[in-house]
Specification:
With 382 residues, the protein is an all-alpha fold. The chain has a single domain, classed as Na+/H+ antiporter like fold (Up-down Bundle). 71% of the residues lie in helices and 0% in strands. It has 17 helices and no strands. α1 runs parallel beside α12, α14 runs antiparallel to α15 and α14 crosses α17. The longest helix has 32 residues.
Amino acid sequence: MTAIRLFQQPVRSKRNRFCVSAVSFKFILLQIFIIIPFVCGSWLRGHLLNPDIWNKRLIRFTLISLEPLFAIWVVWGLELNRNHILLPPAGFVLVLLGLLGGFLILKLLPTESGPDGYSVNESNEPKSDSIASEKNHRLTFYISSSLSNHGFTLGGFLCFLLLGEEGLALSYIMLVYFYPYVFLVVFPLARLSGQQPESDLIAADLTPEETRLRRRRKIREAFLSWNHLPLYGALLALALRAMGFERPQYDRQMEERVLESMLFVAVVLYYFSLGLAFSAGAFWRYRGDLLRLCLVKFLFVPIVVWLVLFGIDAIWSVSASVANVILIEAVTPAAIYSVIAAVLYGLKRELAASLFVGSTVIFLILIVPFLYVLRSLYLWGM
């Protein structure tokens, strides 16, 4: 089934009705497993001494324990074909479209106030500091509009929910683009702020030998990091398939139940940590930027991608599973790495965190039910 046929309505059958009922049940579970942990995390934020530390610990635990297992298992069991070659370039195109949309939206809908919620001209900052602050504000917005949550905690999980294990595996293959893009595009863009990363500022007083050792360690950490374990898992699975090793076979129903259970545990941990990072005051303070970001993430990028897929399908037939994964990932909100870049390069951390959390909350409230309705109406060629 090609991308052009994605929106044609197939004949309903008893099996299809059963699948839709199963997806409906999973969708209800998803809402419960997202909303309750998020509310609990938001409530605990005001009762913990260091909520940010707990937030980082929970995210790190998920990255090094659960996600690598998902990556190895689902990618190892995937039957690769020529359509899968589209996925990493498609991921690269998605984030570049987000970056382009960020530039365009600030041209069409420029901010009327400074980055701290008041008029730049009315602030007490010197003019040069005010201009630098506005520049950092824009760079933070560009990075947030570019990076999207394509990982298993949101985009990948929705691919699993709507498309099954194959959808999750394909989402991992798409993520091959991520780290090259972060290091080749996002971090150089963040450096335009003119500020050094915090680690560079610490290294300013080191001896030349200590500086060289520090740089070597930073290069090593850029490629060998606990945070990259899910990517290593996916690459290991691809290598095993290339060498002809088949994934062990167990009872299919048992495999699905174990995988679903682990995924829901990971989602609970992730959205609990997201609640720990949520600040209602900052959410309201940057509401104008959040609206602009939503126009980019939830309208501009998915519409352009949908049109491009039709164009590609005219010359090269795209499988329905690949096209669906690309379309689902095209409508995901901002990613946590936008906050990481803001912290590393002295950009607007509070703005980045507000855009990340705010766009995710809006995505869960509005976009996820919309995707579910599309799936329930057989508009995804299933």
